[in-house]
Design brief:
The complex is a heterotrimer.
Chain A lengths: L1 H38 L17 H7 L2 H33 L5 H13 L2 H21 L15 H13 L1 H12 L3 H9 L4 H12 L1 H16 L3 H6 L11 H11 L3 H32 L1
Helix pairs in contact in A: 2-13, 3-6, 3-7, 3-10, 4-7, 7-10, 8-9, 10-13, 12-13
Chain B lengths: L1 H34 L1 H11 L11 E7 L5 H14 L3 E7 L2 H13 L6 E4 L3 H8 L17 H6 L9 E2 L1 E4 L1 E5 H6 L8 H13 L3 E4 L5 H19 L5 H7 L8 H15 L10 H10 L2 E6 L4 H7 L1 H7 E4 L12 E5 L2 E4 L6 H12 L1 H11 L2 E2 L10 H4 L2 H5 L3 E2 L11 H13 L5 H14 L3
Parallel strand pairs in B: 1-2, 1-3, 7-8, 10-13
Antiparallel strand pairs in B: 3-11, 4-11, 5-10, 5-12, 6-8, 6-9
Chain C lengths: L2 H29 L2 H6 L11 H10 L1 H32 L3 H14 L3 H14 L6 H25 L4 H8 L4 H12 L1 H17 L2 H6 L8 H10 L5 H36 L1
The chains are: A mainly alpha, B alpha/beta, C mainly alpha.
Chain lengths: ~290, ~450, ~270
């Protein structure tokens, strides 16, 4: 009997530990989400005081909206390229910095630095670099270049470059933390057993830092699928829709076109897509972690 | 059973948390107030309006505006008002134009009070009026300080919800030296302007400074070329009214084609990297003196003055944008800029109205001209803002002035959409027909 | 130093220079006048003038903005660390459906786009009078940050062996006791990570302060920055000066924390 009591008390502590976090979450994310979801069934324009319920109209409309598909393609193109590049480069840098290297703390700081400033600011700096800085820099060498942001064929890549520049820092820190958890004895003993650098990387290091990879992939992918500020301060979705992503599309529908109801319906669809992507990703990496 | 218990526990705790949040906040707010005397006085005044019967009681009104490019200038005008009304202080909140309406809308929908705010007369005003957020100003004595036609032009559904403030011509700046060197006359028709542009290009200079990286620069041009051609050349003044309901399409409007062709011609004669250089970039280019023409309002003048004073004083001219090939139609585009509205839920309406009245007075009007470098609508206010603008005086004197914006009576934001589609055309990603078809398709999705 | 080291060093150096270039431009802008920038974009300023900085300082209420940013960041980050360490512990040690469900909910919450919640959050803030207060916005950040925080803490605590805990439990130690005495000291490295990432996010966040802190007295650094950028042409050099002023404290913070992270992680690595 006393045993059960103690068990309940122990369980109670765990519940109590969970509660503050859960409540904050419910308050800041869940309740607003439910309120937002409600708007998605209305034809609210975002301003008027009366709200009309229109059922599933907004959702039906969204699926027949050809612009939505264009926008989704842009979004995924951007997010996948950014995720791959950011993870590859930050892992590479983490590996380089993990070896014996002069001034490695200074380098670490430098690579993290872009991630420290606000996107409003980096967007501004890069806009100026692209438009004036780079052309006049390359002009000194007789090269005639113009801003990628002004050409629909390159604008998205212009943004990806900024995102990579700014996005390296945090994943790199996580990779470094992961790599420092890899005991050097293990790598040394593999070396003694005749493993070359590539083998020890793929066979020993990579499996051991798998949790870091999971976290980084997850954070970078969902982060870049949600990209808003960067597009908003640099291209506003242009030129010729080439950088229009789902967030800016939602924003424009909600505010510029005065269709808050439709906008929230779009963001609910977006939310579902994100959940799907996350579940798929987690299950893939979980399985891989186990296999390794 | 267990699940529902967990759920109800959560709800209970959430309620507790919410209650706790509320009380915490009151604490922090009151402590913040007491530590900062400047912050506490407005809070007190708004919290206790019943006591403010005596005139000595200080009042704070909030004033949100979108002229954030001239924040300092607006602040100077406000300072002048505060000096004249020592018991009223104005909390000025400048917001960048791109975000202004979003923010204002969020505040209004959230039930927040903004005492005085800027609006663009027309579609934007109508939207806020329809939402019931704007005080009716019809018949207010300060409206008599404006020309009756101006007051009438800015009315919404026959009533005055906004008080006019300032206006700007939107026209072509030109580099006098380049024009003189190449023997170019001021073009009075569109074709003459393009011919002049080609001449400038052949001479190795840039004909047009475009700056179409920013959506608004191209949008501003589209939003004037198209309604001008629609209403005045094609005689469809109610085109945009019908567009709102779907009664007409861009395909039915030859002016849409004209505008697209104009855009392509101007784009081809633009500066290098037309969609990569922004507004600041082209003002720089123009100030350097290498560019023939720039379509713009008066706002870059102060900047040009700083960067190239010599050019500013004697080197720049200004001519009406010839949207058609009919000289008699090509009058000077003269548009309202900001107008002022009073929030219908304002608790300090009297003070708010005083503020609007000051802006409408001769003193306020002169102050706008002096501090903002733009023309005031107030009767008799000074009009001397820059040497280049004086070139437009004949058009004002002979009344050859028009406002293409009065034809745009729709809340559908078609300009931005057109901007993007034109950019496709510039890069051969769409044909003229495709642009028009896509636009019609998009508009049909946005009918009210 | 052998050949590989030299090669590595030069590769890393080149990448570093590329990374620093935009900062060089920002600093260049900050020290020059509009006229100088206009005349030549890359030329170094003729004299090292701090005029832009002093003008920006005067015009921007820098001190009040930085105080606000600091207070909000510190409160939010402390809240996040406390709350997510506790929740992360529960989730990591209780492998039961309910806890796993909560964990999934937190993860799902990470993907909720801000666009959905923006307007409701503002309405709630208004009704609960949370606008224009450091506490109000910190609670929202707490709710946002706890999701990622739990992910980090749960992951980290799962990797900690349970043996010591079980031994302590047999010795009669209660759950809070175990958490405070055994787990908490081990959490330093992950706490540093959570701290830094959240501090950066909160320090730089823009849209939420724009909605929540409309009163001048509560404006944060990015908000003030934004108002500077809003003045679009003539004050660009001032804006960059202000940007540089905004960068300095967060870079300083990062430099300080960086040492701590490395130390903490090294200690954690030995124990693990």
């Amino acid at each position: 009997m006393g045993n059960i009591k103690r068990l309940i008390r122990a369980e109670m502590w765990y519940l109590l530990f969970l509660l503050p976090g859960l409540c904050l979450f419910i308050f800041a994310v869940f309740v607003p989400l439910v309120m937002g979801a409600r708007y998605s069934f209305t034809s609210w324009d975002g301003l008027s005081r009366t709200v009309h319920y229109t059922g599933w109209d907004n959702y039906v409309r969204a699926f027949s909206d050809s612009d939505l598909w264009i926008v989704l393609v842009n979004t995924f193109k951007y997010a996948i390229i950014v995720t791959v590049l950011v993870n590859a480069i930050s892992l590479l840098l983490a590996l380089l910095l993990d070896t014996y290297l002069k001034f490695r703390n200074a380098f670490r700081t430098i690579f993290f630095l872009p991630g420290v400033i606000s996107i409003v600011l980096s967007g501004f700096i890069w806009k100026y670099n692209y438009a004036i800085g780079f052309p006049s820099l390359f002009g000194m060498f007789g090269l005639d270049i113009s801003s990628p942001l002004g050409d629909p064929n390159y604008a998205l890549f212009g943004l990806i470059l900024i995102a990579v520049w700014q996005g390296i820092g945090a994943p790199m820190i996580i990779y470094i933390a992961g790599l420092q958890g890899v005991s050097s004895e293990l790598v040394e003993s593999a070396k003694i057993d005749g493993a070359n650098a590539r083998q020890s990387f793929f066979r020993i290091i990579l499996p051991l830092i798998a949790p870091s990879i999971t976290i980084n992939m997850l954070l970078v992918l969902t982060g870049s699928l949600k990209v808003f500020d960067l597009v908003y301060v640099t291209t506003q979705g242009g030129p010729a829709f080439s950088t229009e992503v789902i967030s800016t599309f939602i924003y424009k529908s909600s505010f510029a076109n005065f269709q808050a109801g439709y906008g929230t319906a779009l963001s609910m669809i977006f939310f579902l897509i994100l959940v799907l992507v996350t579940i798929v990703q987690i299950s893939i990496f979980r399985r891989r972690e186990v296999e390794m | 059973m267990k699940k529902s218990m967990v759920l109800s526990l959560c709800v209970l705790l959430l309620a507790l948390l919410l209650a706790a949040c509320g009380s915490k906040n009151n604490d922090s707010q009151s402590s913040a107030g007491s530590s900062d005397p400047a912050a506490s006085s407005p809070a007190e005044s708004s919290a206790a309006p019943a006591e403010s019967a005596s005139e000595e009681k200080p009042i704070t009104i909030s004033f949100m505006h979108f002229k954030s490019d001239v924040t300092d200038g607006v602040q100077k005008i406000v300072d002048q008002f505060e000096a004249a009304n020592p018991n009223i202080s104005v909390d000025v909140q400048p917001v960048k134009y791109d975000d202004y309406y979003t923010l204002l809308k969020t505040k209004m929908a959230g039930g927040d009070v903004v005492d005085v705010f800027t609006l663009n007369a027309g579609a934007q005003t109508k939207l806020f009026v329809d939402g019931g957020y704007v005080e009716d100003l019809t018949g207010m004595p300060f409206l008599e300080n404006f020309d009756p036609s101006v007051v009438a032009a800015q009315a919404t559904d026959g009533k005055n919800y906004v008080s006019p403030v300032n206006a700007t011509p939107i026209a072509m700046f030109y580099n006098k030296k380049i024009f003189a060197d190449l023997g170019i006359e001021i073009p009075r028709t569109f074709d003459a302007m393009i011919a002049a542009g080609k001449k400038i290009k052949d001479a190795g200079k840039t004909p047009f400074a475009l700056g179409w990286k920013d959506g608004w620069t191209l949008g501003m041009w589209i939003g004037r070329d198209l309604p001008s051609n629609t209403a005045l050349v094609e005689n469809q003044p109610d085109f945009f009214t019908k567009l709102e309901t779907g009664a007409v399409k861009f395909a039915d409007n030859p002016a849409a084609r004209t505008m697209i062709q104009h855009a392509k011609q101007i784009f081809d004669l633009g500066n290098k990297d037309q969609l990569g250089v922004d507004y600041n970039g082209i003002v720089d280019l123009f100030a350097k003196g290498d560019v023939g023409m720039m379509y713009m309002g008066t706002w870059p003048l102060a900047d040009i003055q700083k960067k190239n004073p010599e050019l500013y004083e004697t080197g720049i001219g200004y001519f009406p944008y010839p949207f058609s090939n009919d000289e008699s139609l090509n009058k000077l585009e003269f548009n309202p800029d900001a107008s002022l509205a009073v929030g219908s839920n304002s608790k300090n309406k009297e003070a708010a109205l005083k503020f609007v009245a000051f802006m409408a007075s001769k003193e306020g009007g002169d102050s706008w001209v002096k501090n903002i470098n733009s023309l005031s609508y107030v009767k008799g206010a000074s009009a001397d803002i820059a040497p280049a603008v004086n070139e437009l005086q004949p058009y004002f004197d002979s009344g050859e002035v028009y406002d293409s914006q009065v034809y745009i009576k729709t809340t559908i934001d078609w300009t931005n959409q057109f901007v993007q589609n034109l950019q496709k055309l510039f890069f051969d990603k769409a044909t003229e027909d495709e642009v028009i078809a896509t636009m019609d398709d998009w508009v049909s999705k946005n009918h009210k | 130093m052998n050949k590989t080291h030299i090669a590595t060093f030069s590769i890393v150096s080149v990448i570093a220079l590329v990374f620093l270039f935009p900062f060089y431009v920002a600093a260049l802008m900050a020290f020059k006048t509009p006229k100088q920038t206009f005349d030549s974009f890359y030329a170094l300023p003729s004299s090292l003038s701090f005029e832009n900085f002093s003008l920006a300082w005067k015009a921007s209420k820098y001190l009040s903005a930085i105080t606000n940013s600091l207070v909000i960041t510190v409160i939010s980050v402390l809240l996040i660390v406390l709350v997510s360490a506790l929740a992360g512990y529960s989730i990591a040690r209780r492998n039961k459906p309910f806890y796993n469900f909560v964990f999934i909910v937190f993860l799902a919450g990470l993907v909720v786009p801000f666009q959905i919640t923006m307007l409701p959050l503002y309405k709630m803030g208004k009704e609960l009078s949370m606008l224009n207060s450091h506490w109000g916005i910190a609670l929202i950040y707490g709710g946002f940050g706890v999701q990622m925080g739990v992910l980090f803490y749960a992951g980290f605590i799962r990797a900690i062996s349970r043996e010591i805990e079980e031994a302590a439990r047999i010795d009669g130690c209660s759950t809070p006791g175990i958490f405070i005495r055994i787990i908490l000291p081990l959490l330093k490295p992950v706490t540093a990570t959570v701290l830094v990432l959240n501090a950066l996010y909160i320090w730089n966040d823009f849209l939420l302060p724009l909605l929540y802190l409309q009163d001048k007295f509560y404006r944060t650094i990015p908000l003030q920055q934004y108002f500077f950028f809003g003045q679009y042409s003539s004050d660009l050099n001032l804006a960059f000066a202000y940007a540089v002023m905004g960068i300095i404290p967060i870079v300083g913070f990062f430099l300080l924390m960086q040492k701590y992270i490395i130390k903490g992680i090294a200690a954690g690595a030995i124990k693990g």
